[in-house]
Amino acid sequence: SSAKKIADNINEFAKQMKGLNINTYTALMPNKSTMMEEKFPEYFPSFGQKNLDMLYEYLDEVSNPIDSRSKLKKHMNEEYMFFYTDHHWQSKAAFYAYQNVMSVIIKKENMSEQIFDFEDYSWELIGKAFYGSDARKTTAANAIKSDKILVAKPKKDLYKYKVTWGNRSREDLYDYSFLEKEDPYTNRYQAYMGGDYANIVVKNLSKQNGLNTLVIKDSYANAFIQFLAPHYNEVHVIDLRHYKGIPITEYVKKYDINHII
User: Fold this and answer.
1) What are phi and psi of 165, to 5 degrees?
2) Sequence-ordered strand ranges (E) for 22-97
3) What digits encode the pLDDT tens for the residues 147-194?
4) Which residues contact 212 (CB under 8 A, 6 or more apart)?
5) How many helices (H) and strands (E) does the chain have?
């Protein structure tokens, strides 16, 4: 099955990294159709839960599988977990997944770090309303309401960042320009990290713990990375859909990566 094939690839990769003394943490982000499966009409089944179950079954211990579904499930009755018109999650759901994932990593890596609480952040819907990917496919006529981006700001803002991609950089983990564009079909989800780059580095200028992590991801991680950033010296991000750089085995050596998510 394809689940077995994917799991085999992840296990193989994790073994390879283990040989370099680097732990891999496989945190598969539960998407909207998985978490809201019961909302689907009969004629449009979703196999998200079943497929994830299969995948987790085939993942070996070496890949440190972390399942965030039960953590998210506890909060699914809250507002602003997933977008209404977009297939992505909001930063709130990403935050709960972060709490789950990071608590495993902190324990296993013996990091002297504290997990943040929901109250450590202020949560605010910011910018112009928009119609996301689901509405872009079906036109807004089918959407009863629009969405806004939920911005998470640490209340004690002790951190200074430098976010670098290619030869460009900025100081904020959000790119607010996407929130003000006039077109209601603007992909405002790109406000998180500025969208999907092949390779991006978040340098935490106020942290000297010498820990660097590498996140291998798709777009779901864009809302998630902001919560990892306070815990590391550097968060390196690679999106394999766009990445054409040096092999990962060389990358982790070159940038002194401690573990992979």
Assistant:
1) -145, 125
2) 23-24, 26-28, 65-67
3) 999 999 999 877 899 999 999 999 999 999 999 999 988 999 999 999
4) 232, 233, 234, 235, 236, 255, 256, 257, 258
5) 9, 11
Q: How far apart are CA 212 and CA 224, in angstroms?
A: 16
Query: Which residue type does 15 have?
Result: K
Contacts of range 39-45, beta carbons closer than 8 Å, 24 or more positions apart:
none
Q: Which of 193, 25, 202 is nearest to 97 (CA)?
A: 25
In degrees rounded to 5, what are phi and psi of residue 106?
-55, -45
Ordered DSSP codes for 151-189:
EEEESS----EEEEETTEEES-SB-THHHH-S-TTS-GG
Task: Give SS3 for 95.
Answer: helix
